[in-house]
Amino acid sequence: MRRWQGFYLAVCLVGGCTPTRVEPPAAPAAPAQWRNAMPEPADDQQVLREWWRGFADPLLDDLIAEALRANLDLRIAAARVREASAGLALANSILYPSLDFGVGGGEEKRIDRIIPLPGPTGVKLTTPAVDAVNVGLNFRWETDVFGVNRLTAEAYAAQLQASEAGRRALRAGLLAQVAGHYLELRGAQRRLTVLRQGIDLQRRRLRAMQAFYAAGLLNQADVARQAALLQVWESNQPGLERQIAALTQGLGVLLGKRSDYLPPLLDAAPAPGTGLPKLPSLFPATVLESRPDLQLARAEVEMAAANLGVAKGDWWPKFNLAASGGLGALALAGFPGIVEGVYTLGAGISAPLFNAGRISARITAADARLEQAALAYENAFLAALAETETAYAAHASAKNANQQIDAARNQAERAQRQREVLFRQGAANWLEVLEAEQNKLLLADEASKSLTALQLSLVGLYRAFGGGWPAEDG
Question: Average pLDDT of 211-218?
């Protein structure tokens, strides 16, 4: 057994090894198919990268471009990536030797440097001043025999991956927030337009009913009921206006802009269309590999595994090499100066003998952090599956509701047109025409809410997919 240990140590000394490496736990298995998926023909990668363009709204495209440029949280995340990249470069530098150039010199007079000199009365002891100059190179290297420094670099590499994944996760979330706020804002504006039309209609109905009451065709209760209905419609307007103001403010924050930035753009933009992005056909494994939040969680597992290996490496000995060389000049008062080549060579080894359990405690703590990261990753994995399935189900429900409300709205428009024809033919009164128009407006409001819900369900799906990152990020 000792013979094999000696052979193993020799291999490590010659070629390097990592006996303390800890492999991270395997990722959970993804299901083969989604239960509620309704894919549509689409270029999967292109749709994922720029899914918001499927809404065919130029202003939304411009706002997302501005958010990606100016959002403060995204800029903070980019700075974190640069910081992590510098940390990785620092960790990698430890794997290599360092070479420094040095120049030193000065004059010194020390009591322990005594020289006997002849004098008129015999030998005299003196401590002369010495002028010394050294010029040379200094070499230092901690040889990474057991791979501890390599594991440290791997931990920093995983930290960089985590920072990059965090930036992508923030980017995907920002895209969904901007699109969601904008689409909800546009939906509220559509509803406000319908509401104002409805308020105008209720006022016309009230005037008509007052005229019918004056002619003795209606009673006072009918007129009072219509006046109350008008007040109900009018009471809904402040709430919608507050919602529009709040969404405008929130969208401005996401864009990193002041509150007066958006209103002129919204006023100048044409009415938004009803385009909808297509859904790509994605297998669960593809979605889970692409989601940046899961990439972040997995990178944290790999970082914790590397740090556990680093902690275990404290039990192993460390080897150091050092050398220096150059020229030295010495001048002693009363003697000729000398110039000589100088050098030092050295090697050292250190190993733990007693540390009151400090190393064991570090290993235990690192192992606990790895367990936490692995459990957090598994939890995020399951949450991502549930989020995507829920988003698919929500989209299917919103799509079905939208189709039904569109059909009802078409029926209401047809009924309103028929009432107008009957009124012109004298077969219906004006109040019946206004009632048909009221039904049409009520369904127009429901259709606007349904369209917004359908649009937001698509935003939620693409957020669950993790879509919306540059091609170079993959």
Answer: 88
